[in-house]
Amino acid sequence: MQNNIIEQNKIVVRVKDPTINQNQEEFVIYNIEGQDNTGDFQIQHRFSEFYQLRSLLALKWQYCYIPALPPKVIQGNMSLQVIYQRLIMLNHFMKQLSHFSFLWYSQEVQTFLRQQYIKESNSNVQQENYANLLISIFPDFAENIIDQEIETKINQFYLFIQNVTPILQNYKILMKNQINVSKYYFEQINIFQTYFIPEYEKILEINVENFRSRQTSKIFQNDQNNCILSDTDKQFYIMYIQIKIELNEFQVLIELIQKRDQLKLQIQTLNEQLKKQVNYVSEIQNNGLNIIKQLLTTKENEIEKQLFNLKQLEKELTMKVSLFSLITNKLGSDIQFLKRNFSENYYFVVREMSKFFKQNAQKNITYYQNLLQQIEKQEF
């Protein structure tokens, strides 16, 4: 569809190298760099400025999908784990923005990419003007009649994310618990391999070759002055972070679909008001003498007044129907894109987690095979 999703995305954007600023106020700075049709960009922003950008976009582009951001945290925003999680989620946010030209090339995003400070936009836009703005940007969506298939897909997807959200929330808790369990496991394995076995062999004067090459793991050590996690740490968190990203995205889509449903209810209410207004005008025109006497006005003036109100209702109804058609068609298109996006993320996560567990299993097998061989040598 025109001016919506960039199928062949040539925009390059990366959020990287988080750095803790320890001046008067302690906060984390994220580097953003890349290139688009306007040229190269390289700038630094803190998390609160990403948050401000999304708020401006959500205010300007109501009824439109705006990628999710991680929620703010009250405590622990300087911890290594929070910084790394935000880094992954901010990359997701910027890459999702880059798929939608009307968002990426908006004044707000372009200012964010090339200026240190974000300008506040005018939020006092009347719905009529907003509808005209959307229609001018997405004429294809506005002109197309709503297909029942699109309505069905939206409703099915809405039911899906409502049903899957509590499941993902449970998985998120399980993954967090698993991280804590694995933390304890790796700590104990490190102690066992690095300290216990060498000391035990030394005390018993067992002559075992120094074949152990595994070093003490740095998993989950919280170095406040370093924003870099080891590869093992990153792999360990990938499933947990991905679940959080999808939960955030699902919440955005739930709110968007609910806004659309509210607009549908407004249209139904306007239709009822319009019918009543038509009946009232007809009553005045045909036999409204008693009504006119009660209102202390002439029949012509009352008819003129009510016809004006009727036209205003018709105008508002036409605008809302056009807006509803547009956002329904656009939402159907966005959902198709996001479903592909979610599928790609899912396969990426499964692949990375499988590689992680396979590598760690192989390391442990190799270690214990070597240990067993050395013990068998000593026995002979």
Automatic annotation (TrEMBL):
Gene Ontology cellular component terms for the protein in this record: endosome
Domain PX positions: 8-120
Keyword annotations: Coiled coil
A GO term for molecular function: phosphatidylinositol binding
Pfam families linked to this entry: PX
InterPro entries: PX_dom
UniProt feature coiled coil, ranges: 253-316
PROSITE patterns, per database record: PX (PS50195)
UniProt cross-references to PANTHER family, sorted A to Z: FI18122P1, SORTING NEXIN
Protein name: PX domain-containing protein
Protein species of origin: Paramecium primaurelia
